[in-house]
Amino acid sequence: LTTVEQFLVAEILVFLVHQDFGRNVYTIKEVVSEIRDKETRRRLAVLPYELHFKQPFPEYVKLVTEFSKKTGDYPSLSATDLQVLALTYQLEAETVGVAHLKTEPEKKVQLSSTIRHPEAPVNIAGFHLPSKSQRLEADACVSTSASRPRAAEDSPEFGAFLYWRNPLPSIEEDLQELLKAHTVSLSPEVPATLPPGMDQESAGEEGSDGDSDDGEGWITPDNIKRIQQGMGHCDAPANVQVGCVTTDFAMQNVLLQLGLHVLATNGMLIQQARSYILRCHGCFKTTSDMTRVFCPHCGNKTLKKVAVSLGADGTLHMHFSRNPKVLNTRGLRYSLPTPQGGKHASNPHLSEDQHFPQQRLSRKARQKTNVFDPDYIAGVSPFAENDIYSRAAHLQIRDAALGAGRRRMNPNAATKKFVKKR
Length: 422
Description:
- The chain is of the alpha/beta class and 422 residues long.
- It has helices at 29-33, 38-45, 58-71, 79-95, 132-147, 172-181, 200-211, 224-231, 249-258, 363-366, 391-394, and strands at 4-10, 22-27, 51-53, 240-245, 261-263, 275-280, 286-287, 303-310, 316-319.
- The strands form two sheets. The chain has a five-stranded parallel beta sheet with strand order 3-2-1-4-5.
- α3 (58-71) crosses α4 (79-95) and α3 packs across α9.
């Protein structure tokens, strides 16, 4: 069990179950505000220790946000997740420092294609697999034979086997030797020479008694931690100053890429997380650029995130989900709306090179107030230029300096729908 020496940042409420993870448990108020059930709120009110609340600095939130965009986990993270990551980074920087932390993520998955698999068989009984040089020589022989006069076909040698190759080496003998070398006996071995007064039956009984040992080799609750550490599934170091407890795979990936410590709900230290790529379910092409929205091969918006792992020989293994809801059919039942025209059209984003209107203000709204006008009054002038009739004014499009784009002063306010009467 890992014990955090200084600070433990909790993304989930594991501190309600385990109290021996860390000396100081930190979290943000948004995590506690997500609690809805009464039972958990009651347990939170009677914690046997003090729960510290701390908000991360904006510069750390920005740093973690940019780093998550590079790893490709930004679409899977919420605002609360980013603040928890930033708080972990901030406590690590204040306690240990940032010299050991990374600024760029590691590229664990690199897609590469080869002409032939490195484990492709060379000699197969009954098949002839010529090399590239042999194929070139054969093509040259065929071209020279085609250029010969047609009278050669009438020769008595026509139809004979003119090309000869050496027979392939037989692999049956090698297989027999391998089988003999790795022969496994299913019956217990009995020594050839038995002590005097001991027959085969007594030897067999003694062997059966030896099999019924005291349970050595079994996995029990007492030794499961040691066996997992020996297999490399988890680790429990002693000197962990700052750690984060989370079950979100996206958060675990970002923390591990940054070089921070990640703890599981059982208190063990996580050493590796999942890696993802984008796979197009239309043309089945893959890309490791997690920032893409459209497929770089077919151009459709059909990219889905798939977990991958690298084999021992460098091959890429993709792990698909059996959940049919992964490929959501939302928006595919009905036809697309009719494309709109004009300066302020709102059309769905369907392609990567699609052009969108600039959403600029009207000419009257861009005019500045003339302070040299005789009718101008300092302060609040009743004669100030104010555009309230144009299409841009109805859509509440602001200046670029104030933030361009459509917005409502009150997002909860109901909008009026103008329906043309017939």
